[in-house]
Amino acid sequence: MSIVLGAIADDFTGATDLANNLVRAGMRCIQTIGVPDHDLDADDVDAVVVALKSRSCPAEQAVNDSLTALAWLQAQGARQIFFKYCSTFDSTPRGNIGPVADALLERLWATQQEQVKGEQTVMVPAFPVNGRTVYQGHLFVGDRLLNDSGMQHHPLNPMRDADLVRVLAQQTPHPVGLLAHATLDQGAEAAQAHLAELRRKGIRHVICDTLDENDLTVLAETLVDLALVTGGSGLGQTLPEVYRRRGWLAPVANAGQLAPSSGAALVLSGSCSRATLGQVEHFLTSHEGFALDPLTLADSDTQIEEALAFARARLDETTPVLIYASASPEQVEQAQQRLGAAQAGELVERAMARLARELVGTGVGRLVVAGGETSGAVVSGLGVTELRIGEQIDPGVPWTQTQVAGRDAPLSLALKSGNFGGVDFFTRAFAALGQGATS
């Protein structure tokens, strides 16, 4: 079979974020965990999002993993390739956004030159509905520049510069340009002409201003013929309609329909973002939770055993339970100073993976996970290889379903990026499934 869109996402929640928007726009979507070792065998799929764990790994590994994903997606007949990264452009001066985009573009250029509109791609990280916008190449989170939004304290990829042209220029040897809002406001034809002029000047990467949903609509029309587009999940809202107008995609009813949910409700939270910290605080005003501490986890597995006992004594069909390692920037810094950033993160991820595996094995059927790294650890721990994407809970976060060993009914799973969701997300997510948990 052939698919219309093949996406490569650099983390698990980012993959789900994009898949969610594709489903809401009428594309039937599967998310894979890593690159499958077999061809896609479903005939009711329009898009596939391959979730990698390549945002914070060494650039060479990110490039190799992404090229492997590209080869698989090309084998499935993908008409267009989408490299998905976070709407806050999480990266370092060494990458990984620039190196991966360069490698994907070069491979596409080498393998299908007759189909590629020049060796150029675009960067569209904006997701206006979630407050991520770009103006004059500068990324805003709400009304704050990126470097004043809390992202400057990110434990793995602190973002201290909002000028994306400047940020990306540090990650690639190729020129970086800008598609400014004044041009975009003139429509797709003017935007395409500007991209063509930049291409003639040798500009390989183009940051795109985006202020609202209308800009995303214009960008979808502008970019539909590019072999490779890159960005956040915002474009997933508008590309499907352009595909339909091209005749590439048939209308589908209930693209996000899932099976009925069942089982106990659990939240595992490893994110330390401002949004998740607020969600944890809100949840604890009316529900119970158990806090994990990396410094304690470093000594023994005793705290994991205590968390398991805490959860098993409280899990039922109606009341969700929270286990969290979410902590303030000061607490995170203290743990990282004692243990090192990598070890502190690995300890939490290992604990969350074990908790998910054992608690799903003893009755959890509805699971919310907060944080990209935590989500990656959990799905790996559960042996999940594929997710069917369902309906949205909050912008960027859908419910999904998957089969796991030892459980007859599908597991309902929500993977939440740390920065996403309203303050009552943890309780409202379960209510959205139609049973249990009210705020």
Give the key terms:
alpha/beta; Rossmann fold; Molybdenum Cofactor Biosythetic Enzyme, Chain A; 15-stranded mixed beta sheet; 3-stranded antiparallel beta sheet; 18 strands; disordered C terminus
Number of helices: 15
Please give the CATH class of the largest domain. Alpha Beta
**Intertermini distance:** 44 Å
User: Strands across the major sheet, in which order?
Assistant: 9-10-5-11-4-1-3-2-16-17-18-15-12-14-13
Mean pLDDT reading: 91
Helical proportion, percent range = 25-40%
- CATH superfamily membership of the largest domain, which one? Putative sugar-binding, N-terminal domain
Describe the 3D structure.
There is one protein chain. This protein has 439 residues and is an alpha/beta fold. It folds into two domains: 5-246, Rossmann fold; 264-431, Molybdenum Cofactor Biosythetic Enzyme, Chain A. The chain has 15 helices and 18 strands. It has helices at residues 12-24, 59-75, 97-111, 164-169, 181-184, 188-200, 213-223, 239-246, 274-284, 294-297, 302-312, 329-339, 341-360, 372-382, 425-431, and strands at 5-9, 29-33, 47-51, 80-84, 121-124, 132-135, 138-141, 144-145, 176-179, 205-208, 228-231, 264-269, 289-291, 321-324, 364-370, 386-394, 397-402, 411-416. The strands form two sheets. Strands 9-10-5-11-4-1-3-2-16-17-18-15-12-14-13 form a 15-stranded mixed beta sheet, with helices on both faces. Strands 6-7-8 form a three-stranded antiparallel beta sheet, with no helix packed on it. Strand 17 (397-402) and strand 18 (411-416) form a beta hairpin. Helix 12 (329-339) packs across helix 13 (341-360).
